[in-house]
Amino acid sequence: MSVGLLLVQTLNGLELGVLLFLIAAGLTLVFGVMDVVNLAHGVQYMLGAYLAVAFAAATGSFWLAVPLAAAASLLLGAVLERLVFRRLVGADHLDQVLATFGLILLAEEGVKLVWGPAPRSLAIPDLLAGTVPLFGGLRYAVYRLAVLGAGLLVAGLLALLIERTRAGMRLRAGASNAAMLSALGVDVGRLFALVLAAGAMLAGFAGAVAAPIVSVDPGMGGPVLILAFVVIVLGGAGSVRGSFLAALLVGLTDTLGRSLLDAALAGALPPAAARTAGPALASMLIYLLMAAVLAFRPGGLLPARGRA
Q1: Does any domain span residue 306?
Q2: Residue 268 burial by CB count (10 A; 0-12/13-18/19+): exposed, middle or buried?
Q3: pLDDT at 123 over 90
Q4: Is the pLDDT of residue 94 over 80?
């Protein structure tokens, strides 16, 4: 593999990693603070993409569509917390799984009723269209670099919020011991509502910025939800720092693993066998990575304090 192609795949892996972090950060806080297994988090990513498409069509502006989609996702998360998730706090995890799986079915069928089952797309804004040169004559899309930069910026702001503010201190305390936090007089119910709404906003923002480079369809939330749970297990439940590190590892492992395996198998197997075995083996790499990490660190790479 050439240096230029390796750089392209590395950038693709980092881009996937920051998108996974935006999704997993909210999910890990919901699980770490509220102890709620939210299978519906993937559809909040999907709804963010659909909302961005709808707002872009209504306003004619990508730059208005993305913040409006994030704001609408925040509002939707607050509504769901009030109507559904508040009742799931303290419930058995099986009840949480069944309830949130019901939300998945409801959201997917609702999207089909409103927008139809056909995939949608969102145009890349003119300012971010085009490519930049890399090594070996290869070029890379400006928009993908912008997505990577936006994800890193949001990750930095989230880190400052969690590490340097009173609200962040309460989030970290809630992820470690929510019962003790409540005993100290903190309104845990309000904290739960904030966490769930913020998590929905992050997932919606990820869906909105991903809409121009992925197919916007009712089933787009499922695959990213699985990867987000892998990120949470790898990083440590309730740990935003762990989710960031794990998301980058998963993104790079998935992207570079597919490229390197395809190249390696092409030289060792017949072309037809290589095309079949490559994707199958590549899809296993993330789970092998997770098993290897958990064998040595069962609590994850950077577990929340009090959960190691």
Answers
A1: no
A2: exposed
A3: yes
A4: yes
Burial class (CB in 10 A: 0-12, 13-18, 19+), 228: buried
The answer to whether position 98 is within a domain reads: yes
Residue that is written with structure tokens 């004619």 in the block: 60
Residues 6 or more apart in contact with residue 203 via CB below 8 angstroms: 22, 23, 26, 27, 41, 42, 44, 45, 48, 73
Rounded mean pLDDT of 115-142?
89
Q: Mention every residue, 6+ apart, whose C-beta is less than 8 A from residue 227.
A: 20, 250, 254, 286
Residue 281 corresponds to which amino acid?
L
Domain-located, residue 234: no
Report the amino acid identity of residue 59: T
Range of the domain at 119: 7-217
Give the confidence band of 259 by pLDDT, cuts at 50, 70, 90.
confident
Alpha carbons 300 and 242: distance in angstroms, whole number: 8
Number of domains forming the structure of the chain: 1
Residue 261 inside a domain? The answer is no
